[in-house]
Amino acid sequence: MEIHNKRKYLSFLKFKRNFQKYGLGKVRSYELVLHWLKNRLNRNQFLILSGILVGCTAGLAGVLLKALVHYIHYFIVTKVHFEYQILFYIVFPFLGIVLTTLIVLTVFKGQDRKGIGAILYEIAQNSSIVSGVKMYSQIIQSAITVGLGGSAGLESPIAVSGAAIGSNYAQTYKLDYKERTLLLAAGATAGIASAFNAPVAGIMFAFEILLTGVVFSDFIPLVVAAVCGSLLSRILLQEEVLFRFYARESFNYHNIPYYLVLGLIAGLYARYFVLISQKVEHFIKRLHLSRMRIAMLGGAALSILCLLLPPLFGEGYNVIKAFADGNAQVIIHNSFFRYFKIDEWSLILFLALICLLKVFATSITIYSGGNGGNFAPSLFAGGTLGFLFAIICKQIGFTEVPVSNLVLVGMAGVMSGVMYAPLTAIFLIAESSMGFDLFIPLMIVSVMSYLIARWFSVVPPDFRTLAAEGKIFTHEHDRNLLSTLHTKDLIDRDSQIINSESTVTDLQEMIKHGKKNIFAVLDARRHLKGILTLDDIRPLLFNTDMGGTGTVQQLMKPPIAIVHPTQALPEVIKLFDDTGVWHLPVVNDNDEFIGFISKSTILTSYRQLLKEYSA
Q1: What single string gives the DSSP state of each residue in 303-334?
Q2: What is the pTM of this model?
Q3: Where are the transmembrane segments (predicted)?
C-alpha cells in the first residue's frame, strides 16, 4: 500500500514538472491537482468530479447572495417602524437602480447583458464561453438592485453567475464544446437549486430552458451539481431564508373547478405580465436619454410604487409566505392601507393593485438599469393572484376554499406562463411545499397557463430578442446547432472573378487554368454585376463566332439572390431553398464583392459540428 501511494506521489511530481516545463505557466496547487486528476480519471469520472466542484461553487454564490439580500429586507421590513420605512421606500429603490447603473458604466464598462437571455446567447453565439467577469458582476449588481428594494428576482443573476463558473471551469481544463455546455448548465442548475432549495426544479430548468432541443447522454453532472447546490442552501441558510412553505391543505378532487378557473386566469395574467413588460422595455428604449438619466427616472418611479404598495419592495417572498398562511393583515399593516378601515373588498382592491402594478415595478427595475430577473416576480404575482382569487371566491359565498393551495398553484401557473417552463414550475412548488400530493392541481394550472401563453406567442420572452435577431432558435435541434455557425466564417474568399468588359477569349483562358465552375463578374469598383457558371457558358465555349468579339457582360446573368456576411445562417439556408442554387454571392454594405458561399460548405460544417456535439 505504501509503495502504491509513493508511486502515485512520484507520478504527480513528474506531471507537475512536465506541466511547468512546456510553458503552461504557474498554476494554483488545486488547479495542478485537477489537471493531474483529469489525466488519471476517465471522461465520465472527471465530469462527475467537475459537476461536484462547479455545483458547490455556484451553490455558495447563490447562498451568499440570497442571505445578504434577505437580511437587508428583514431589517427594513420587520425591525424598522413604518414611519422610518417610508423613508427607506423613497430612498433605497432609487439608490439601488442608480448605483447599479453607475457600477455597470464605470467598473464593468457598460457591459450589462443580463437575465436568462445572457446564458442563451453565450450557448448559441459564443460556443458556451462566458466571460469570467460574470462570475461576480451579476452578484454585485443584483445584490445592490434587489437588496435596496428593486422589484426583481435574484434567481436569474444567480443562474448567470453559476453558468459563468461552469464555463470558466471548463475553459481552465480545456474541455470541448459539449462538455463546456454541460458544465455551464450544471453551474446554472446549482444556482437555481440553491436559490430555491429544489434540486429537481434546478435540473428541469436546465433541460427546459437552457438546453432546449439539445440531447445529453451525460446528465449526471447536472444531478450532482443540483444536489450540491441544494444541500449547501439547506445547511447554510436559516429556515426563514429558505424558499419553503409549510401551510398547505391536502388535495381534494372536489376542488378541481377552482384549479381549472385559476389556470385560465393565470394564463391570461401571464400574458398581461409579458405584454406590459415588453411595452415598458420599448418605452424606456424610445426615451433616447443617457443611461444615468434613465436610471434616475426609473428609480424615482420605482420608489413611488414601493411607497404606495410596500409589497412591491424587493423579491416579496415573505409576503407570499404570509398569504399562504392566510395572514394578509400583517402585509396591510405595513402600508398606507393601515390608516383605513379594512374589510374584504378593501383587501381585494389592495391585492388587485399589487397584481396590476407588480409587472410595472419589475420592468422598470430591470430595463431602467437594475439587475434582476422574472423568476421571483412571476412567483410573487402568481401567489398574490391565487390569494386574490381565493378571497373573491370566499366573498362570493363559496365555502371550504383551499386558500393555501391556491396560493401555491397560482405561483406555478404564472411562472409557467411567463417563463414558458411548466415542468420547472411544477417541481419547484412541489419541492418547496413538500406538496407532492398537489401534483394534479399543479399540472392542471401550469399546463393551462403554459398553453394559453403559447397560444399568444410560441417564442418565450427570454428568447424573443435573440430569436428576432436570428441568433437563437428555440425548438429544433438542427437550428440550435446552426445558430452556432456564422455566415462570415463560411465564405469562400478565394473566388474566381472577371471584369465585366473582358472578352470571351479571356474567359476561356481563365476556365482553362481555373479550378472552379462559378465566376463573379465585377466592374472596376469591384461591384457585383452578375455571375457566370460553366453550365451557362458550356454551349458557347467552342463557338468561334463569339471568340474575341463577345464580352462577358453579354453572357452573365444577374444573381438570383445576394447574401450579406452579417445574415444569420438559417436565413441563408432559406435563400438556398427558395432559389434552388448551390452557390450565392456575398457582398458587403458597399455592394463590394467578398466571395461565394456554397450549400455544400454549410452542410459539411454542420455535419462536423453534429459529429463533435454527439461524440
Answers
A1: HHHHHH-GGGSS--HHHHHHHHTT-HHHHHHT
A2: 0.75
A3: 46-74, 86-108, 182-207, 219-237, 258-274, 294-313, 347-369, 375-393, 405-430, 436-456
Residues in the chain: 615
How far apart are alpha carbons 374 and 154 in whole angstroms?
9
- Lowest mean pLDDT of 127-136, 227-236, 603-612, name the range: 603-612
Look at phi and psi of residue 580 and say left if phi exceeds 0, alpha if psi is from -120 to 50, else beta: left
561: helix, strand or coil: coil
Helix ranges (H only) for 237-343 are 256-285, 291-308, 317-324, 328-333
Does an H or E element contain 521, and which?
strand 518-522
Structural domains of the chain ordered from first start: 27-236 (1.10.3080.10), 253-476 (1.10.3080.10), 485-614 (3.10.580.10)
Instruction: Encode pLDDT of 220-256 as tens digits.
Output: 888 899 899 888 888 887 766 677 776 667 778 888 9
Instruction: Give the residue from 224, 191, 197 showing the smallest Cα distance to 209.
Output: 191
| Residue closest to 69 by CA, chosen among 148, 178, 183 | 148
Give the per-residue SS3 of 585-610: EEECCCCEEEEEEEHHHHHHHHHHHH
> Which residues are CB-contacts of 316 (< 8 A; sequence separation ≥ 6)?
151, 376, 377, 380
CA-based torsion, 564, 566, 571, 574: positive or negative: positive
